[in-house]
């Protein structure tokens, strides 16, 4: 099993380092790490260090020896999922599974047919929960570069994001749509890929037209229709396999 990951603001250089605070408590009281065991310190932005536990003190302090420091480059093509706001806690489920799968960025989208609305303090709390979920799922899946979770966007705001993409797709349930399937679409080997996941009620005709005008064509995943909380994960996995990032 690979070494557990703990997040730090700045990855230290070689030598001794004290891991304390919430991460130290998790290492000592939850993971119960002891002298001689290995762990990874990561900043979530690609920089990480191989470490060995020297000693544990109290309930939240772990002294480690930093042996080697590494820097993981961003992978290509970069995969962004635009996720329409699901109902209840399915938003966190979508973020968690997409992070575990390997998505690079997640954009919450206020689609016209979304039942859930992010407004005021409630919206800020929901966004913070998505970001926290991405961080924890990144740690759990042993990632050293966690996905970025953007601020909530409207359909109009997504146009600029789509214009800069090398490939953009709207995941659509229409089996007869001329664009065909994501499994047969021509994907770039580098650059950026944006996948748009609509709400349970589907992408409206006006939204579909706006996205097509910005360069995003509709594609279907398969014969079955996935829920909005699982479609992004399935599409990400398909793209990771087809572009060689899972090779």
From TrEMBL:
Q: Quick one: a GO cellular component term?
A: cytoplasm
Its annotated compartments are: Cytoplasm
Q: Which reaction does it catalyse?
A: uridine(1498) in 16S rRNA + S-adenosyl-L-methionine = N(3)-methyluridine(1498) in 16S rRNA + S-adenosyl-L-homocysteine + H(+)
Q: InterPro entries given for it?
A: Alpha/beta_knot_MTases (IPR029028), PUA-like_sf (IPR015947), RsmE (IPR006700), RsmE_MTase_dom (IPR046886), RsmE_PUA-like (IPR046887), tRNA_m1G_MTases_N (IPR029026)
In its UniProt record, a GO molecular function of this protein is: rRNA (uridine-N3-)-methyltransferase activity
Q: Does the keyword Transmembrane helix apply?
A: no
Q: Which UniProt keywords apply?
A: Cytoplasm, Methyltransferase, rRNA processing, S-adenosyl-L-methionine, Transferase
Note whether Cytoplasm occurs among the keywords.
Answer: yes
User: Which SUPFAM superfamilies would you find in this protein's record?
Assistant: alpha/beta knot, PUA domain-like
Pfam families noted in UniProt: Methyltrans_RNA, PUA_4
Every Ribosomal RNA small subunit methyltransferase E PUA-like domain range:
19-66
What range(s) does the Ribosomal RNA small subunit methyltransferase E methyltransferase domain occupy? 75-239
* Biological processes annotated in GO: rRNA base methylation
Give the E.C. number(s): 2.1.1.193
Similarity comment: family membership = Belongs to the RNA methyltransferase RsmE family.
Q: What is this protein called?
A: Ribosomal RNA small subunit methyltransferase E
